[in-house]
């Protein structure tokens, strides 16, 4: 393989201390020497399929100790390495090929078409290496995947693993198809393993399997070169988080089951109160469909001091409660993520990442709950109308169409209506709205859990002190310093400067109290839930369909505090604006609950300029590479040694390339 060192486009020049002489630029790195000692080469491609950088792990048996330390990982520019294979991925949806953006989250017949070709500029390297491809599709997206005969399809936990291996120097091409619902898939892992130079050896495959094992082993610890992962010092924190996860899982099951049953009963009680009121307003011959005059009378009882209005309040509380129960599911999701990330990357960079994610999840939860309320409102109008139609027909049959003794048969008609198949379509829409509210609360629960994790365990995250007080006092000093940084003395001592410093102190003091309260709670009850699953929202917001029903029928007075968008015409724009404003206010409240995020240039204790280097991009890449390595390890196990039976050549390094998908 012919390799060309990359050219450095610029160099740092500084003036020498003596005579102002120019110091020559640093010597250009010897990329060829690094690649000569390479055992494994890793990269993550961008959306165009081009690697952003390479990670090269050296082979300790080939290292010149005067140049490189054994087992080191070097980052090389893309110009320094030429991949022996190229890969292209195409997608189809219900027949025609479509872009990745079109197939993402789509439902229908999805096809994934993968082609791995020897690179034109790779020389003989492609004939000395074997390509292997692996990716997964969540089982909830598609549980029945068909693929070409040369492709392995197997179940791995909650995912379906698709894997295929090619031959040295030969194009690998395959397709798989699935009936997908909201399609998504993992990144594609392309492993390039050393093979026999002739490409036709049929050895035992032991060497190739060993190369794959070494490739995936190094991939799993690649992030350790950038972070404090792998040191074992976080095991106590992980154990504590796992205990909390177990507790949240139990709460998710018990609280959700209890509140689901309560909501079902309350919903039935509401419908009984609804048609009970309707029955009292019936007159003359009942008929087999809803009497609109009777329904108008019922609509008038949706507000005020009436049994029906109380049933609305009870149902609103039940909706809130059963939705909020799913906050525990969000907490489980948060704990799963934090545990996995600590295992993968330690606590390096986690505080900023989790703080940002908590804010994003809070915003999602707020906006999605508002949307779920509107969805429930829109679903309840047709459900109520259909329920009343079915009830009227049942009651008419029981009474001989006479309203004179209708109340005596009301309960029997309600029982028959509840068991009727005629409500299935309308019930499905109500259930979908309730599911949307549950999903929104999962986001809210995840946000709350992430915030609590950061508060309760602040002293165990990177940069944390063994004393929460010391950490927060330092934060307070930093806050004041950064607010006054760059101001001349007169400005710093001005009313503005003093006001800003006082604000910073108050925010830091509030943050310190939160940390202390959270850590005290953790010490007193290590299994205390990370979320507050009690919600208090107005009945008019949740059950705003009542106002829409009143307006649609043209009768009765609605609660002035009720939302005006559901079922009424001409007010949707104002209602949307109200919902957006409410979401923004909630987001602002969530932000107000956060400790201030301070950033900028300050002065260190030694008087030098303080720069913070952002390692998040490199950490994210190495974590992706670690996940891809696990995919290849599973693929090797699934495919077996027969699929990679060429004898290994020690002259060529192994490659692992991660290709982002949808």
Distance between the termini: 33 Å
Number of helices: 17
The coarse silhouette is: globular
The radius of gyration is 32 Å
Structural class: alpha+beta
Strand order of the largest sheet: 3-2-1-15-12-7-10-9
Question: Would you count the extended β strands for me?
Answer: 15
**Sheet with most strands:** 8 strands, mixed
Fraction of residues in H or I helices: 40-55%
Kindly estimate the percentage of residues that lie in beta strands according to DSSP.
5-15%
Report a brief summary of the structure.
This protein is α+β, with helices and mostly antiparallel strands. Helix content is 48%, strand content 14%.
Could you describe the 3D structure shown?
- The chain has 662 residues and is α+β, with helices and mostly antiparallel strands.
- It folds into two domains: 85-224 and 620-659, no CATH class; 235-592, no CATH class.
- 48% of the residues lie in helices and 14% in strands.
- The protein has 17 helices and 15 strands.
- An eight-stranded mixed β-sheet has the order 3-2-1-15-12-7-10-9.
- The longest helix has 50 residues, at 350-399.
- It starts with 30 loop residues before the first helix and ends with a strand.
- This is Tubuliform spidroin.
List the helices and strands and how they pair.
Elements: H1 31-36, E1 38-45, E2 51-58, E3 73-76, E4 85-93, E5 97-98, H2 100-103, E6 108-118, E7 129-138, E8 145-147, E9 152-156, E10 159-165, E11 172-180, E12 188-194, H3 206-220, H4 235-280, H5 292-299, H6 307-324, H7 327-345, H8 350-399, H9 406-418, H10 424-456, H11 468-484, H12 489-492, H13 495-524, H14 539-542, H15 545-553, H16 572-592, E13 602-603, E14 609-610, H17 616-639, E15 654-659
Parallel strand pairs: 1-15
Antiparallel strand pairs: 1-2, 2-3, 4-5, 4-6, 6-11, 7-10, 7-12, 8-11, 9-10, 12-15, 13-14
Signal peptide: 1-20
Keywords: Signal
Protein name: Tubuliform spidroin
């Amino acid at each position: 393989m012919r390799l060309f060192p990359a050219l450095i486009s610029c160099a740092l020049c500084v003036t020498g201390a003596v005579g102002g002489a120019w110091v020559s630029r640093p010597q250009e790195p010897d990329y060829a020497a690094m690649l000569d000692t390479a055992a494994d080469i890793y990269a993550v491609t961008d959306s165009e399929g081009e690697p952003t950088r390479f990670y090269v792990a050296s082979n300790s048996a080939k290292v010149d100790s005067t140049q490189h330390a054994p087992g080191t990982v070097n980052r090389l520019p893309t110009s320094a390495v030429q991949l022996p294979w190229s890969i292209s991925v195409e997608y189809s949806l219900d027949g025609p090929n479509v872009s990745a953006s079109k197939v993402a989250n789509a439902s229908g017949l999805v096809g994934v078409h993968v082609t791995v070709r020897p690179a034109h500029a790779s020389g003989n390297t492609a004939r000395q290496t074997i390509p292997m491809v692996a990716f997964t599709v969540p089982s909830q997206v598609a549980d029945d995947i068909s693929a070409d005969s040369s492709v392995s399809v197997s179940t791995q936990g909650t995912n379906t693993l698709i894997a295929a291996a090619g031959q040295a120097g030969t194009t690998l091409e395959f397709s798989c198809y699935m009936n997908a619902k909201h399609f998504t898939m993992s990144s594609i892992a392309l492993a390039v393993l050393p093979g026999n130079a002739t490409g036709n050896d049929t050895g035992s495959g032991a060497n190739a399997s060993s190369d794959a094992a070494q490739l995936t082993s190094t991939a799993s610890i690649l992030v350790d070169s950038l972070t404090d992962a792998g040191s074992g010092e976080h095991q106590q924190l992980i154990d504590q988080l796992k205990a909390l996860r177990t507790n949240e899982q139990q709460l998710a099951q018990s609280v959700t089951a209890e509140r689901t049953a309560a909501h079902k009963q309350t919903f039935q009680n509401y419908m009984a109160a609804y048609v009970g009121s309707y029955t009292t307003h019936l007159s003359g011959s009942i008929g087999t469909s809803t009497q609109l005059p009777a329904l108008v009378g019922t609509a008038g009882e949706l507000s005020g001091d009436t049994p029906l209005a109380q049933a609305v309040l009870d149902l609103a509380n039940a909706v809130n409660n059963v939705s909020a129960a799913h906050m525990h599911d969000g907490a489980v999701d948060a704990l799963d993520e934090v545990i996995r990330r600590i295992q993968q990357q330690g606590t390096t960079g986690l505080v900023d990442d989790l703080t940002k994610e908590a804010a994003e999840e809070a915003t999602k939860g707020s906006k999605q709950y508002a949307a779920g309320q509107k969805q429930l409102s829109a679903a309840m109008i047709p459900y109520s109308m259909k329920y009343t139609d079915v009830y009227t027909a049942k009651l008419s049959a029981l009474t001989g169409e006479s309203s004179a003794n209708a109340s005596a048969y009301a309960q029997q008609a309600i029982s028959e209506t509840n068991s009727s198949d005629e409500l299935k379509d309308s019930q499905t829409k109500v259930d979908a709205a309730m599911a949307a509210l549950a999903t929104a609360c999962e986001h809210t629960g995840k946000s709350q859990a992430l915030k609590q994790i950061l508060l309760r365990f602040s002293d165990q995250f990177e940069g944390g002190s063994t004393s929460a007080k010391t950490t927060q006092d330092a934060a307070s000093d930093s806050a004041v310093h950064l607010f006054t940084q760059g101001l001349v003395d007169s400005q710093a001592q001005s009313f503005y400067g003093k006001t800003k410093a006082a604000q910073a102190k108050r925010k830091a003091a509030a943050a310190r109290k939160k940390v202390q309260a959270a850590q005290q709670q953790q010490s007193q009850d290590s299994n205390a839930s990370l979320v507050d699953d009690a919600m208090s929202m107005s009945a008019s917001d949740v059950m705003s369909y009542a106002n829409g029903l009143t307006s649609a029928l043209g009768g009765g007075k609605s609660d002035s505090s009720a939302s005006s968008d559901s079922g009424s015409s001409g007010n949707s724009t104002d209602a949307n604006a109200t919902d957006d404003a409410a979401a923004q206010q909630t987001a602002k409240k969530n932000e107000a609950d956060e400790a201030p995020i301070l950033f900028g240039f300050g002065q260190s204790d030694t008087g030098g300029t303080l720069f913070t280097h952002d390692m998040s991009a490199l950490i994210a890449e190495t974590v992706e590479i670690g996940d891809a390595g696990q995919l290849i390890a599973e693929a090797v196990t699934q495919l077996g040694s027969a699929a990679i039976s060429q004898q290994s050549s020690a002259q060529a390094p192994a490659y692992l390339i991660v290709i982002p998908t949808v």
